[in-house]
């Protein structure tokens, strides 16, 4: 205890002495009053799940909420009156109120009685109500604690959905503050995850993006608690969960997987087409001494060999990763080791970050911080290297026919989509010509005609993918 206290003190001292240390934003809080039938409750859960994924916290009372949602029932006159009373109470106690649910059909009546209501949306209008919350209390998504990319803050369209399978993390990477904010790993029950996946697919989701702090650790805290799903036991383990999810949604994409040995078991599911041939593995570095100081999990010297084995089993697998440059103590030799490793690994997608001391992270107290100009120079070098690898890999796809999910259709007859190798917001896109007949969420075959460093260009061919 004393030791932990001392470490905290030294971090605080570091932050005080280094005013540049990144301060974390406070998440906005949402209150919810849910009225009516179980279906309305399911809608409320879905809205809150999306808001949690977008970086909001829930408030158990009016006073602590930045905005209050009232999910109304309009089935009977008595239910309508109860809904109006609930709106009135929320206005009186908090003042910032959004109304959703069945009474959304009677927006005029609500506005006449409560002109201060911020927004009114109808039943099952998940996107609109979440959008209204974003407008009323903008989320402060932080790249240091949130799993969804900044750009993901825009409303998640119905055709893809993030599915959170656990919260917290058992690791203690020295640059990360997640465990101190969110605690150790807590896995969700597999049957609850699968039920949510089914609901999402029933509501129009075609691609599930599985997220957590450490997807490969899923279930280690509830390992002995299999649950019944469709008459069979499902073990809380990444491979079993991925297999079941693959039966529910057309596309299932796994994010934040660490290269533990059992990750090898998920590759055959990709080769079978049950799970997308895509692995998002945040390696963060390759040099053994840097990884040791980062205290990274799955720090395996044989990881390059395993990447080659994965490609033998599933040649189409796309591997995405992120790397930190300029971590304290990173020498020029360490950095060159990383560049050589990237040459060998030939990763498909790479994001890079310059090390920043985040308030409260243990790495802040490490010696030998790298000067900013050196970080900049290394960042430019890693981006140049990874862009060249990406360009060569994408050029090799020209002439191939690939399945593409459609994200947007424009008025000029074009469309924008993503291949199986592209997660929304963080990877590349596929720009289509002669695609005005397509709809958002379609999964179609596309002949690739051109490529650049990050994106592909093509034309749909007849027949569904
Ligand atoms: S694995 Fe490391 S970086 Fe990821 S959440 Fe856990 S402590 Fe943070």
From TrEMBL:
Residues in TRAM domain copies: 395-462
Residues in domain MTTase N-terminal? 28-138
Q: Which NCBIfam families match?
A: 30S ribosomal protein S12 methylthiotransferase RimO, MiaB/RimO family radical SAM methylthiotransferase
Chain's role:
Catalyzes the methylthiolation of an aspartic acid residue of ribosomal protein uS12.
Q: How is the cofactor bound?
A: Binds 2 [4Fe-4S] clusters. One cluster is coordinated with 3 cysteines and an exchangeable S-adenosyl-L-methionine.
Query: Among the record's GO biological process terms, what is one?
Result: tRNA modification
What cofactor does this protein call for? Answer: [4Fe-4S] cluster
Residues binding [4Fe-4S] cluster 2, per UniProt: 169, 173, 176
Location(s) in or outside the cell: Cytoplasm
Q: What is its EC number?
A: 2.8.4.4
Tell me which residues make up the Radical SAM core domain: 155-392
* CDD domains in UniProt: Radical_SAM (cd01335)
Catalysed reactions, semicolon-separated:
L-aspartate(89)-[ribosomal protein uS12]-hydrogen + (sulfur carrier)-SH + AH2 + 2 S-adenosyl-L-methionine = 3-methylsulfanyl-L-aspartate(89)-[ribosomal protein uS12]-hydrogen + (sulfur carrier)-H + 5'-deoxyadenosine + L-methionine + A + S-adenosyl-L-homocysteine + 2 H(+)
- Family affiliation: Belongs to the methylthiotransferase family. RimO subfamily.
Query: Which keywords are on file for this protein?
Result: 4Fe-4S, Cytoplasm, Iron, Iron-sulfur, Metal-binding, S-adenosyl-L-methionine, Transferase
Where [4Fe-4S] cluster 1 binds, per the record, is at 37, 73, 102
Q: What is this protein called?
A: Ribosomal protein uS12 methylthiotransferase RimO
Q: For this protein, what is any one GO molecular function term?
A: aspartic acid methylthiotransferase activity
A Pfam entry, by short name: TRAM_2
């Amino acid at each position: 205890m004393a030791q932990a206290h001392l470490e905290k003190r030294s971090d605080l001292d570091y932050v005080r002495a280094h005013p540049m240390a990144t301060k974390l934003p406070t998440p906005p809080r949402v209150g919810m009053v849910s009225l009516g039938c179980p279906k309305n409750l399911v809608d409320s859960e879905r809205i809150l799940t999306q808001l949690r994924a977008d970086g909001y916290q829930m408030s158990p009372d009016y006073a602590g909420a930045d905005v209050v949602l009232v999910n109304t029932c309009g089935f009977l006159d008595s239910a309508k009156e109860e809904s109006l009373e609930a709106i009135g109470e929320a206005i009186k106690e908090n003042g910032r109120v959004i109304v959703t649910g069945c009474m959304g059909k009677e927006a005029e009546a609500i506005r006449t009685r409560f002109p201060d209501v911020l927004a009114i949306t109808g039943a099952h209008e998940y996107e609109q109500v979440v959008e209204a919350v974003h407008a009323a209390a903008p989320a402060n998504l932080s790249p240091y604690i949130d799993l969804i990319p900044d750009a993901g803050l825009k409303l998640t369209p119905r055709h893809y959905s993030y599915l959170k399978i656990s919260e917290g993390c058992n690791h203690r990477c020295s640059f990360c503050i997640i465990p101190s904010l969110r605690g150790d790993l807590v896995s969700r029950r597999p049957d609850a995850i699968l039920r949510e996946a089914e609901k999402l697919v029933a509501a129009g989701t075609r691609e599930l993006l599985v997220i957590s702090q450490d997807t490969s650790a899923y279930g280690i805290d509830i390992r002995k608690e299999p649950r019944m799903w469709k008459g069979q036991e499902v073990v809380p383990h990444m491979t079993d969960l991925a297999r079941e999810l693959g039966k529910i949604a057309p596309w299932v994409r796994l994010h934040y997987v660490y290269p533990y040995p059992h990750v090898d078991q998920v590759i055959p599911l990709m080769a079978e087409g049950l799970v997308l041939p895509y692995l998002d593995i945040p390696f963060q570095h390759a040099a053994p001494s840097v990884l040791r100081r980062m205290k990274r999990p799955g720090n395996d010297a044989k990881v390059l060999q395993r990447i080659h084995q994965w490609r033998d089993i599933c040649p189409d697998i796309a591997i995405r990763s992120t790397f930190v440059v300029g971590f304290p103590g990173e020498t020029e030799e360490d950095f060159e080791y990383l560049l050589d490793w990237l040459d060998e690994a030939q990763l498909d997608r790479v994001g890079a970050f310059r090390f920043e001391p985040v308030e409260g992270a243990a790495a802040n107290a490490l010696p030998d911080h790298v000067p900013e100009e050196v970080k900049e120079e290394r960042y430019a070098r890693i981006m140049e290297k990874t862009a060249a690898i990406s360009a060569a890999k994408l050029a090799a796809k020209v002439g191939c026919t690939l399945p593409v999910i459609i994200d947007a259709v424009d008025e000029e007859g074009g469309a924008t989509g993503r291949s199986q190798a592209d997660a929304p917001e963080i990877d590349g896109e596929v720009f289509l010509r002669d695609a005005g007949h397509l709809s958002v969420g379609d999964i179609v075959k596309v002949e690739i005609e051109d490529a650049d460093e990050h994106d592909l260009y093509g034309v749909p061919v007849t027949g569904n993918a």
